[in-house]
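Course assignment 3, question 2. Fill in each field.
Student: A.L.
Task: Predict the tertiary structure for the chain below.
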Amino acid sequence: MKKLLIATRSKGKFPEIVRLLEGLPLEFLNLNDTDLPDGYEVEEPAFTFEGNAIIKAMTLGKKTGFLSLAEDAGLEVDALGGRPGVYSARYAPGTDEDRYNKLLGELSGVPEEKRTARFRTVAAIYDPETDKIRTCEGVYEGVIAEKPVGSNGFGFDPVFYNKELGKTSAEMSVDEKNSVSHRGKALRAAREILEKEFLSHGTEK
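Answer field:
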């Protein structure tokens, strides 16, 4: 069975991604399952999510020889001119809590109607055997809450509020979050691309 390397070490992100790709004739690996050194990270020098996802997928695919799926994602807050954007993971040193507390501080006094924001994910799939690369995107609209609520998820989930469901992303189950999230949308598109363009020849069905 063909292996798919998912470019993460995150214990939160990996099962979310696998859940969306289950059923494909693939064996799912993450970076902890490779011979890459502990702590190995691909530099993300691009100014766009797509650029970083492509760099990550191609670098890892060439280093390991595996079909690779990488994504870059971030939070775009309208009141902050689209920040933190591609710098979301590096928005503040320390923990996820440090990052969302910085965000809440920057938005202090901003009324609810101006706290609109979106998560954006771009996924890239790269096959080192054929040198084929494909990308797809998912966007998830919401507002930044006044304070963190919920203990599920990771990143900015505790402060990202979904008006339709009446809860933050950190209050959702994995399946509930996958049904609405940017990553869920991008990975459903990635699943279609994998089936049509990467798995249609010479693989077990």
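Instructor remarks: The chain has a mean pLDDT of 93. The radius of gyration is 17 Å.
Grade: pending
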